């Protein structure tokens, strides 16, 4: 039996869940966005206090490592590393796209030949995405992708694809195919990390506490606010 503290900060949702042998013991979520820096530490403290009251020994820390928000991922992984190091327990990294896929599988029943395309919003018509089968094997490897009307066309001609995540919301009008299924309301949450984090724990799939980094998929590109642009035109 594994007792795992799960941390998810890859998107606007900040969430923490304490799980034990597949059951959620304690969980905290906030959906307001941009709250990770202020709320995550308190969520973690509340979960650890609950574990202490229940005399639950934490066996591992699991954290969603991306892709997703650069800031959110850094905050989540930093906190997870500190906990794993301080408690001298293993650190588990969970792929956020796989987490979205598992969340969709929990939501409804799908035939075995249905594929899953989790999408995390990037910029404009770009998303972080992949395509998985029902065994979470990648049909299309995780990557940033600019979506147009031809995206996934070849796969959609032979398979139904379930699209989910905040990136899928903006491409509904672009991907028009009878085999495209859009599922609303699915976001990465710590309470849905249980199956993935416990599987990783059982199989001994841990990440380095000191040197592991988020799965960004592409380099960070800073945006300069318009009112901060310095004009080079002579007055």
Outline of this structure?
With 235 residues, the chain is of the alpha/beta class. It is built from five helices and ten strands.
Rg, please?
A: 19 Å
Strand order of the largest sheet: 3-2-1-4-5
Helix fraction bin: 25-40%
According to DSSP, the number of beta strands is 10
How does the overall form come out from the CA principal axes? globular
Q: Low-confidence segments, ≥5 residues, pLDDT <50?
A: 222-235
Major sheet attributes: 5 strands, mixed
Run of helices and strands: EEEHEHEHEEEHEEH
Coarse structural class: alpha/beta
Query: How would you state the average pLDDT, rounded?
Result: 92
Any key phrases for this structure?
235 residues, 5-stranded mixed sheet, 27% strand, globular
Detailed description of the structure:
With about 240 residues, the chain is α/β, with parallel strands linked by helices. The chain contains five helices and ten strands, in the order βββαβαβαβββαββα. A five-stranded mixed β-sheet has the order 3-2-1-4-5, sandwiched between helices. A five-stranded mixed β-sheet has the order 8-7-6-9-10, with helices on one face. Helix 2 (about 70-85) links the parallel strand 4 and strand 5. Helix 1 runs parallel beside helix 2. The radius of gyration is 19 Å and the shape is globular. The model is unreliable at about 220-235 (pLDDT under 50).
